[in-house]
Write a structure and sequence with these properties.
Blueprint: H1 7-12, H2 32-40, H3 42-47, H4 80-91, E1 97-104, E2 110-117, E3 125-132, E4 141-149, H5 162-165, E5 186-188, H6 204-209, E6 216-218, H7 220-231, H8 240-243, E7 255-257, E8 266-269, E9 280-282
Antiparallel strand pairs: 1-2, 2-3, 3-4, 5-6, 7-8, 8-9
Amino acid sequence: MAKKKSLFKKIRKGQSSVVAEPEAELDDLDIQSLDTVAEVAPAAVDAAPIIVRKPYIAPAKTYPAVVEVSINKNDIFGALDIAKQAAIEDAGKKDFVGEFYSIDSDEDRVATYLFEAKLPGYSGWRWAVTVAKLDDKSAPTICDVVLLPGSKALLAPNWVPYVERIRPGDLGVGDVVSTAPDDERLVPGLASLPEDDELDSLDLNQLFEFGLGRARVLSIVGRDQASKRWYEGDRGPNTPIANAAPKPCHSCGFFIPIAGSLRGAFGVCSNAISPEDARVVSIDHGCGAHSETLIKAE
């Protein structure tokens, strides 16, 4: 099975290109640890399969496609007046139907009359009245009356589920945000890498005895997303304060490496006068409060 190289591993090896792949398929995930666990308790592995949720894709727009028609005012049906009257009846008010715009026809017996819409909130929309004739001698018949957006119509944005609208900083005191059962950032606790987090002091038998401590732990995808977010954020290496720092964080006495698989790439600052105090920083971040920055006496 092909292994996916995690972001934190790339950082540790000093590669210049740091790109996470959160959309990785299940076959691309590094689940070597799950194979190790399977040797001890294969039944537990079968009972808790890993579910990877696909990235969110916005649904198709629910409103009609934008209408692009060439200007044609040749009223071959002679039905302009009845078409406009049908639009007025559907709008409920004469003022909501504007000037005649064009006629769109792909067939000899069916034509669509377009009128500018004057409805509040429908800027750039048009009334579309479809008219049909059975033959040259029959009277035109109204088939349908709808509103369609023009090329400059005011349209609503794509609908986005509530959970996808939440952004960092939105969560306040007392707010509760649920996590989806199939969140790709998490996997069942039995899939935890033995060297991860506080579980690294227990052997596999103890892990099963204590129920692995948590129902779910970070997946490879979850770790890569967090690593990418932290590394490219305000406490990564590519910030003004880091570029001006005399030395990187990993050589600072106030730098505390974090536990688990991200230990080689991130730590926590413990310098009270540093702007990064109590925050996660990358090993190649830095600030002017480095422990080995000494001012020479003149």
